[in-house]
Amino acid sequence: MKYCVQQLMGSMQESDLGRKFLNCATMGDLCEVFGRGQQYKDKQEILGSQERPDKEFSTKVTKESREGTRKRKIGEEMVTEMFCPFVRGHYGDNESSNLPKTLLLLFARQKDLGQPMYVMEQQEKQFRARVKLGEESYGSMAWEKNKKYAEQGAALVAVKCLNITKDDIVWKQTKVAEESLDTISAS
């Protein structure tokens, strides 16, 4: 649907509204951009209260989400799994420092856990990954549209299980920032 609206917008994509539209990740975001957010929420409430043909599936997913993690043996290793789909729009534009893989890599380096190792699983045109960090393995139960998102999903599970936040990472200052601080303190 987003592609169709994008085609209809044509050159309007360069406008403020167009940029907001292109940054949307969910149907709720799209409705907010076009001033229909409340209508969308109302409709979701109505749909949530009705008997639905996919109720069994949605109940299963909700139950798994509520229960959080589960352990599963894959080969010789125990993998901690969680239903964590990766949604790129939740991490900002060009902010790679917010991405789960970046947080996990920096955390691993600072704790001397070695490089996180990713193992990919493919089913037709969908992917999911596991990441091994030290002696622990983590994976997402969600199937993703490409390998990059699958790795981010696995890293997201590890970040959540290890309670890693941006505040836990020691960010190194750039040389330019250090020189400007030295100049200020010398004045």
Low-pLDDT residue spans? 57-66
Secondary-structure class:
alpha+beta
What is the class of the largest domain in the CATH system?
Answer: Alpha Beta
Rg for CA atoms: 21 Å
Question: Which strand order does the major sheet show?
Answer: 1-2-5-4-3
Strand content: 15-25%
CATH architecture of the largest domain: 2-Layer Sandwich
DSSP strand count: 5
Mean pLDDT: 79
| Form type | globular
Instruction: Give me the strand/helix succession.
Output: HHHHHEEHEEEHH
Give the biggest sheet.
5 strands, mixed
Fraction in helix: 40-55%
CATH topology of the largest domain: Double Stranded RNA Binding Domain
Tally of contiguous helical segments: 8
How many separate domains? 2
Distance between the termini: 58 Å
Report on this model:
The protein is of the alpha+beta class and 187 residues long. It folds into 2 domains: 2-52, no CATH class; 63-168, Double Stranded RNA Binding Domain. Helices cover 46% and strands 17% of the residues. It has 8 helices and 5 strands. The chain has helices at residues 2-9, 16-22, 27-33, 37-49, 55-67, 100-110, 147-161, 175-186; strands at 70-74, 77-82, 117-123, 126-133, 136-140. The protein has a 5-stranded mixed sheet with strand order 1-2-5-4-3. Strand 4 (126-133) and strand 5 (136-140) form a beta hairpin. Helix 3 runs antiparallel to helix 4 and helix 6 (100-110) crosses helix 7. Mean pLDDT is 79; it is low at 57-66.
